Amino acid sequence: MKLSQFKFKLPEEQVALEPTYHRDECRLMVAHRKSGKIEMTKKDDKGNDLTDKEGKPVYMDFRNILDYFDEDDTFIFNDTKVFPARLYGTKEKTDAKIEVFLLRELNPDLRLWDVLVEPARKIRIGNKLFFEDDGPMVAEVIDNTTSRGRTLRFLYDCPHDEFKRELFALGEAPLPRYIVDRRPAKPEDMERYQTIYAQKEGAVTAPASGLHFSRELLKRMEIRGINFTYITLHCGLGCFDPIEVEDLTKHKMSSEQMFVTKEACEVVNKTKLNGHRVCAVGVSTARATESAVGTDGMLKEFEGWTNKFIFPPYEFGMSNALIANFYHPESTMMMTQCSFGGYDLVYEAYKLALKNGYMFGCYGDALLILDD
Length: 372
Fold this sequence. Notes:
By secondary structure, the protein is α/β, with parallel strands linked by helices. Helix content is 20%, strand content 24%. The protein has helices at residues 160-169, 177-180, 189-192, 215-224, 262-273, 283-292, 332-341, 343-355; strands at 28-32, 38-39, 74-78, 80-82, 86-91, 97-107, 112-118, 128-130, 138-144, 149-154, 200-203, 227-233, 256-260, 278-281, 302-306, 321-325, 366-370.
């Protein structure tokens, strides 16, 4: 398919800049892949659409997801943990304000980090950056990696745990650029831009579909007999990289580190063999499981990196249900949704979302796609 097939006009007012007050109260739309049916509203006992006193539709919220799963179905979650990756410092001598976005630690002993800097044109090898007026946190630029990429060596002499603690104390939640360009990050974002089951630190963007799960909802799922299992894919910024080619086969995704354990394989494969639903929670989970699925349709142990880019046409080998958000035009996440649900069905769901005021982005509303 071509890039231009994923264009649409997204009004600014439908880009969510804040999360819902409760995690599980965003709207939920459900698309059925085989029948082509799309559901948006709650139903009465007779199956009719519910309306409020003013005759307006009563939309489903995320808690209604329980209506579509049964005992012994399995949800696969991505348990990566976001760290406060965006810092602001000043350049020596000029005091120019510089944004430093931490990507990953390269060498704990030498305090080396792979970062992005903005504005990059001002930052050269040998420059020093200061992160507090009178504090000890200083970094030296020792290499250029990409147009905006740099390698920094932090000049901070202390035990590594203390260094990480002090470094992260200076950072803020790594909200997407489309949010921070319109409002500053707040301390509470560090909690809300994090799934409640996050365990393994390493992500610089949240697996957004997992943000909708509250402790109460997970408890209700547990009572129903639904299984949970976890994989890890440390979400990077590759999903936000603009696609600059019309031919999607020529786009290359950035690599992300991922882990699939033996325990996760056992839970998922047992579910598949018994004919129950396997639901991938989020596009990152779908990419990870598709990177680790065998030709027999079973999940395999995996430890390494993936740069898998899923776009139509693509035959999924692992999951038969997918939860994702509504994403921006021409995004790789939307392309993965279209691969799973079919281009025409997902595009129709997006048109309905735009028409009915659904919210887009990491803090936006959810789309559940089922294989029925």
